[in-house]
Amino acid sequence: MVNTIFSLTNRRLFFFLFSFLSLFAQRTRGQVVVDQKIHVVVDLVQLNVAVTDRKGNYVTGLRPEDFEITEDRIPQKIATFGEGSEQVIGLADMTASQDQAVSQNASQGNNGAAQRISQGDLRSLLAGANVFVLFDTSNYMYRGFVFAQDAIADFVRSLESADKVAFYSYSRDLSRNTPLTFDRSQLLRGVRSTVAGDNAALYNCLLLTVKDAAKVSGRKVVVVFSNGPDNASVVPPEDVAELAQSTGTAIYMISTNQAHLEPISTAVFERMTAATGGKAYFAKSWKEEKRAFASIRDDLAHLYSLSYYPRPNPNRGWRAITVKLVGDRLKKHRIRTRDGYRPQPVGFSTATAPVPLAGPIAP
Questions:
Q1: Is residue 30 in a domain?
Q2: In terms of DSSP bridges, do strands 32-33 and 74-76 run parallel, antiparallel, or are they unpaired?
Q3: Are 258 and 151 in a shared domain?
């Protein structure tokens, strides 16, 4: 009886080993295995930089050599530069810098970490701004609704002709009233078609707006008009701020006195806008609303546009960005821009080069 059991056990073990070796030989007959990796997008980091003096006046006429950029304390080389509504230019050594970034990232296994883009493509990529206007149409907006519409309409008309604008509205849900367009008449029709309604899910809808902006190349700005605090979102504002920072989207917020009366909303609005390089405004009247929109328009017209291809950096988490002015004469000025980003993973890829196995297996 014992011999019979032992014999059965041996036969089962032999069959298992034979099946395993057969399967292994079939999978390795081609002598290759596929190396799966997570690719991370770190192409071109775009910065909108506001420079002001101690009185708050914009400082104009600066040159690329006046700026110093570091990422995780690693010095970066500026690839493109522009001021205000002027055409963004690629620097003379940009192509060589890109080639170096591609080869260095490839040597470190960061496939797809940088892409070569011509100077002509970059000028087209960074010309003008993509402005997303997000309008609060919740039940907080019953008072002063028409005045708010007027202020937004004036803002849309006043933007540079090179800027593309989208108009969205929100209450509990997001409404994409007008997609990105140069057509100001279409935008104004979208503004006038809005009506006030449900509870306010500001952070939910702002997150969706930032995701839409992330799909667009070039400078990205979201301008929010909010008449009250958020009372219906499930998304924390910290998640919205981090996504905006990582996608290079500056957030400007204009809030009425209603939201200003709530300290939590005030602090959140100020933190979020500062982290992304934007600004927060608290308007007590419709006249102040118009002045706030005019201030944002002026800010967009005076921003410096800088970009760089990140130098090799093993950090796949949060990367801190520091922008400074060079020279004693300029150090007294103030800089406002986003303070970092997180490289965005794009998922798994099996299209990498095959890796040969150590030893041959006969067919």
A1: no
A2: unpaired
A3: yes
Q: How far is C-alpha 258 from the geometric centre of its chain's CA atoms? A: 29
Give the gyration radius of the chain's Cα atoms.
27
Which amino acid type is present at position 57?
N
Give residue 261's pLDDT: 62
What whole-number distance in Å separates Cα of residue 49 and Cα of residue 43?
Answer: 19
Burial (Cβ within 10 Å: 0-12, 13-18, ≥19) of residue 16: exposed
Distance CA 243, CA 22 (A): 49
Domain contains 74: yes
CATH at 142: 3.40.50.410
Q: Which domain holds residue 54?
A: 40-84+89-124+304-349
Mutual orientation of helices 94-107 and 119-126 as an angle, nearest 10°?
Answer: 100
> What is the DSSP-derived secondary structure letter of residue 202?
H
| Residue 331 in domain | yes
Give pLDDT, residue 127: 62
Give the pLDDT mean for 168-183.
96
| Same domain flag for 119 and 152 | no
Residues 203 and 114 both lie in one domain: no
pLDDT tier, 13 (very low <50, low <70, confident <90, very high otherwise):
very low
- Structure tokens of 95? 């192509």
Q: Per residue in 267-323, pLDDT tens? A: 899 999 999 999 999 888 888 888 999 999 999 999 999 999 999 999 999 999 999
> CA nearest 175: which of 144, 197, 143?
197
> Are 191 and 250 within one domain?
yes
How many structural domains compose the chain? 2
What is the C-alpha to C-alpha distance for residues 252 and 281, in angstroms, rounded to an integer?
A: 8
Whether the per-residue pLDDT at 120 is higher than 70: the answer is: no
User: Do the domain assignments include residue 200?
Assistant: yes
Q: CA–CA separation, 160 vs 259, rounded Å?
A: 30
